[in-house]
What does this fold into?
Amino acid sequence: MPHSFRLIDTGLRQGRANIAFDQAMVALRQAGTIGDSLRFIHFEPTALVGRHQDLGLELNLDYCAAQGIGTARRITGGGAIYLDPAQLGWALVCSRKVFAGEDLGSITRRICEAAAAGLSTLGIDARYRPRNDIEVGGRKISGTGGYFDGDVLMFQGTVLVDLDPATIGQVLNVPKAKLAKRDLDDAAQRVTTLAALLGAAPPLAQVQAAIARGLSEGLGIAFTEAETSAAEEDAARAEYEDEIGTDDFVAEIDGASRIAGTRLGHHIGAGGLVSAHLRLEGAAGDRVREVLFTGDYFVTPPRIVFDLESVLRQVRTDALGEAVRAYFAALPPGGLLSIGADDFIAALDAALAAEPVAA
It folds into this structure.
């Protein structure tokens, strides 16, 4: 018997308001106020960073300000992206039971394969590419990401319907190491759009129908169209005003690598980019004063990384690897997506080998 989901379209909204609505849906699903849902999302021009990314490193903030492009921080991990009214966002907010105890990696594959099958009905050959992309001919047309919050899954995706690739290059500061890994000169080479593939941008309603069809057939879901509820609008407004819409939240991680004495190390693995911003103390500089991990990785819940940062304070530098491995060994299974202790250790080792930022 198919799972019953409602299908809502929240219309064109400012970027931070969209993220606040995401958070409101998660909280209301946990409380049982709303049921399992698929939401279609439309953005005013917005540059979005992932939950663990450094705002100033990832975005050209001067360009965004000059062009009236908003900035926002997602509640999911992953990399920085640019969205505007020509792009389509979608999100599944549902009970974890829908996926019968599967881990996040397995769920990601199932959802991406279903969405790719739906997009292929538009006349393209869309395919899932691990760890969380949908591609056509090796070029990304959709990125996804998700996490668990208790018994609720939040899983988001985007579809590049029509976009001037040059805009991506102006908005996003893609690390050279990531471009070199794929033998690219700029981020625009990595992506494609439905408009480019089909010769013209299909109506958004047609794209939405294709996504819904793919998810329905691939995941065994029956959708019923519905309107947003007053409870959702009220909760989203509160999330926006209290945290997600504030500059403090969006710039929560910003400029960490520019603090005097910081050692910055990077590691790119199967799970994405991990950067360690490390500050040491002690007469011999052999203890961790603080460490901040940024990057485009996915972990669930995000608290895992924040707690790791706390655990490593005051740890001797020669015991960091042991401390990281012990921390990850104690975590419950199923929360990480293609990333683990060795990735964080490699970033820390690179930071220890780097010269500190001058005062």
